[in-house]
Amino acid sequence: MKPLYSENSIIRLRALEPEDLEMLYSWENDPSVWAISNTLAPFSRYTLEQYILDSQRDIYETKQLRLIIETRDGQAIGAVDLFDFDPFHQRAGVGILIHEPANRQKGYAIAALELIADYAEKVLGLHQVFANIGTNNTASIRLFEKAGFIHCGTKREWIRSAKSWIDELTFQKIFE
Which strands, in side-by-side order, build the sheet including 76-86? Predict the structure, then answer.
């Protein structure tokens, strides 16, 4: 059994493991998700292997945390990240990927966001989490709004696409 960070009735969040290398290599090198992850070039296996090894270090040192999203039967379907972790200001960015379209719209992403927000608030003691989403990513906008994130700002013409500029929306979830 792989170590768990958190689970609910729908999914589990767990740490990266060395055996995740090929899966991570496939996900990170899928050009269909590069636009939402600000990726411009493929990752080597070596780079990802080092990333997995570094992921065992503390979030206070690396300022980031990636957890694998698994279904209750142990199928890895995506990842959720905390990044730009700032313990002084008690905030972190959050990003999420459900890789295969067949696994989307099944409640996995909202369940993962709820678990990572709970972890951020109760374990890390954060005051808030935030997300940056292009205006062309309507599925993610709906997801984060459903998860209780509030739109708090717009960065005009922030993301360059092949044909135009896209505004980027900032969403926050502030813990009471």
Answer: 4-7, 11-15, 65-71, 76-86, 91-98, 128-134, 165-174, 150-160
